[in-house]
Automatic annotation (TrEMBL):
It is found in: Cell membrane. Pfam families: AzlC (PF03591). This is Branched-chain amino acid transporter. It comes from Paucilactobacillus vaccinostercus DSM 20634. It comes from the Bacteria. Its main location: membrane.
Length: 236
């Protein structure tokens, strides 16, 4: 198989996984581009920011911060807090990103919630290169966001953004990915523990901080569990 055929096969395998994200990202990207336009920025700003930052929530905040006094330290810490969950995404993808060569830096840079979910849970068909599959998933998802942001910046307020039900697209996508992951698990201990810990942390720390709090707690709990298991296996 030629390198071109390898890439084409991986691209065809990746596209169906990203189509549900196209609807959500195009809409959210349009909203972001329109917001930037209404804030007085040329379409170049949302286009370049979506290319170089690619972190939806952070991009909205940076747009607001651009209108204020220059404060790079504040921007750094705000962005770090907002995207702290990506630290845990990275830990989860260590094994999957091995042996991906020059694609690895882009896979790390382009990792968003949706790309992480697909690349972590997808059952890659036989004969499809894993590295290229993850690359195209990441690149397609970013292209949807960049395209939406650019169009929103170009056409401004002429595009309607209030489309009933579209806001549920991303939630539905994550539910489907979760169900698919449950179907392929040999046991559901991790999923059940994660769900319980998430609910507990939501009740304790509230909606704003429960995601990073849950991830920290999950890592601590499973580190202890697996170390205990290793000690037990050593004794046997």
């Amino acid at each position: 198989m030629t390198p071109h055929q390898v890439r084409w096969r991986a691209f065809k395998a990746a596209v169906p996984y990203t189509l549900p994200i196209l609807a959500g990202f195009a809409f959210l990207g349009l909203t972001y581009g329109i917001y930037m336009h209404q804030s007085g920025f040329n379409f170049i700003y949302p286009m370049l920011m979506s290319l170089t930052i690619f972190a939806g929530s952070a991009e909205f905040i940076v747009a607001n911060l651009l209108l204020q006094a220059f404060n790079p330290v504040g921007v750094f810490f705000i962005t770090l807090i907002i995207n702290s969950r990506h630290l845990f995404y990275g830990l989860s993808m260590l094994d999957r990103y091995r042996h991906t060569g020059w694609k690895k830096p882009y896979l790390i840079f382009g990792m968003c919630d949706e790309s992480f979910s697909i690349n972590y849970t997808a059952t890659i068909p036989d004969g499809v290169d894993r590295g290229w599959f993850m690359f195209f998933v990441t690149a397609l998802n970013q292209s949807y966001w960049v395209g939406g942001a650019t169009l929103g910046g170009l056409f401004g307020s002429t595009i309607p953004t209030h489309i009933k039900g579209l806001g549920f697209v991303m939630t539905a996508l994550f539910i489907v990915l979760c169900i698919n992951q449950l179907r392929h698990e040999s046991n559901h201990l991790s999923s059940k523990a994660g769900a319980i810990l998430a609910i507990v942390m939501l009740l304790i720390v509230g909606q704003t901080y429960f995601i990073p709090a849950t991830m920290i707690l999950v890592i601590l709990v499973f580190t202890i569990v697996y170390r205990q298991k290793e000690l037990t296996d050593d004794h046997h």
